[in-house]
Write a structure and sequence with these properties.
mainly alpha, Farnesyl Diphosphate Synthase, 7 helices, 66% helix, 0% strand
Length: 143
């Protein structure tokens, strides 16, 4: 498969910050339970979610950059699931999506899967300190 290179004409965070974000994210992928094998972690890290976060949020630092990195890494890992056997199981996919929407709606159900737990972690950090109106708009972007 040919590797496509995208030229993003705006600055990213500097290298020491990227290194920290990459190290954090690698640990988060494992500690959150989202990915359970070194090969899966290496695959997501090869997509450079920390670099995506740094380019899309060039002024983010510390917890904000780490949150953005985890968000993009979660999205990359979750999206990758739909390219495999799940692509042929729309009813199962519908149930998975409904579980994630329930997290956005704060329905009180505990997340069951590692993907749900990782998404809950990202979502809770994302909405921290935000108004109910902002939370509703952000949740609507996922549904």
């Amino acid at each position: 498969m040919e590797r496509v290179v995208f030229d993003l004409p705006f600055p990213a965070a500097e290298l020491p910050v990227l290194t920290e974000a990459a190290q954090w994210h690698r640990r988060w992928l494992v500690d959150s339970g989202l990915l359970d094998s070194p090969a899966a972690v290496d695959r997501v890290m090869s997509w450079a979610p920390h670099r995506c976060a740094a380019h899309f949020h060039p002024y983010a630092r510390g917890p904000e950059l780490l949150l953005a990195t985890d968000f993009y890494g979660w999205m990359m890992a979750a999206d990758g699931q739909f390219d495999g056997p799940l692509a042929d199981r729309p009813d199962h996919v519908r149930r998975l999506i409904r579980r994630h929407v329930a997290i956005l709606e704060a329905d009180g159900r505990s997340p069951l899967s590692p993907a749900e737990k990782a998404f809950t972690d990202v979502w809770e950090r994302l909405i921290e300190g935000m108004s109910p109106a902002w939370r509703a708009r952000a949740a609507a972007c996922f549904t």
